[in-house]
Amino acid sequence: MSSVLSVVETKLASLPLPVRLTMPDGQKVGDSNAEIHLLVKDRSTLTHLATGQVGVLGEDYVEGKFDIEGSMRDLMRLAASILPGSPIEAARVGRLTELIRRLVSVWRHSVDRDARQIQFHYDLSDDFYGLWLDPRRVYSCGYFKTPDMNVAQAQEAKLDHICRKLRLSQGERFLDVGAGWGGLLLWAAEHYGVDATGITLSKNQHAYVNRLIEEKGLGGRVRMELLDYRKLDEGQPYDKIASVGMFEHVGRAQLDGYFSKLRRLLRPGGLIMNHGITAGGVDNAELGAGMGEFIEKYIFPGGELTHISHVLEHLANGGLEDLDIENLRPHYARTLWAWSDALEAKLPEARQTLSAENGERSLRAYRIYLAGCAMGFEHGWIALHQVLAQSRGHGRSDELDYPADIAYPWRRDYIYKS
């Protein structure tokens, strides 16, 4: 172990910011004035630090093998600097491994299993999420339309950005797939006058949104259902569909079927907005250096990432035509840092919202998850794409005389005009 400690000391000296360690026996290593202080309780952590296994270090922290004193922003600077290489490259897999992954993906995304996986994450505690999300509890990437926006303003700007892209109008039938705590569903109903249906697999979210619908007196034209997207009735097509932060849970092996289902739910000429996290690398469904395993274990069981190039392939296989693509990666980095900072400012209150049995582990996991994802978006290891699509067009169109199956303007300025 002394040789491992020697490697750690050498690594500490090369870092871009000073770090100090306190060993289980009280021995001090590193800069005594450092802002980042790791209190090591299990010496296996030293091996993971020496080898740059960032995801495993995250597990060590969740399991109480070391404690942290210092800011999460500084900690993520430290994490990025100890990586042995790009986590995208570390996650590249061979064809056989990828084939096995795809076969396993079919099994791990059954209707029942997906429901359990969604409830594992989203039913943790409504009060916990309420501490660090904006007042509308929008749990997806914000849109910082102006540099001075706070996260609550950016979330409202994002909701409106989506509604404008979809060209929502009074009386249209609108479907929100994976509607969360109802931010987009209610915004579209209140600001654009649509008849709105949302679905979720989270029991907590289902109950929460239905309370809001009743409180706002929107029961006549807004509804929230506890339903898997595969079970949606195709008999009455929707005019517009949004899927925000949901398709990451679908699984790569199911994406053709997912986009095909959305197409069948859409009327001719209708529009679909798919907003979701995408992989930074073409060949990896998760990050390397143990990061993907950490998220799978503690945060999003069953989550899989797909590069935008593959997303577009699956979208086309499902019978849809991509119309507008926007990468909001830097917006998500800023959103996640806002969430992380909000959680860090309310750690005592956060502990009170979580169960006595696993509350401390969950809190530690989310501290690492939010800050780690912010770092990942900053470095371009993961991205966030909005893809606007419609059923694949037929024949030619004239700008002044659209056929019924082509309803998208030729220019993007309609999104930004007030």
UniProtKB/TrEMBL annotation:
Active-site residues annotated for this sequence: 373
Keyword ATP-binding among UniProt keywords: no
Alphabetical GO biological process terms: lipid biosynthetic process; methylation
Presence of keyword Transferase: yes
One term of GO molecular function: methyltransferase activity
Superkingdom field: Bacteria
Gene3D superfamilies: Vaccinia Virus protein VP39 (3.40.50.150)
Membrane-spanning parts: none
Keywords: Lipid metabolism, Methyltransferase, S-adenosyl-L-methionine, Transferase
InterPro entries according to UniProt: CFA/CMAS (IPR050723), CMAS (IPR003333), SAM-dependent_MTases_sf (IPR029063)
Similarity comment text for this entry: Belongs to the CFA/CMAS family.
Protein name: Class I SAM-dependent methyltransferase
Species of origin: Pollutimonas harenae
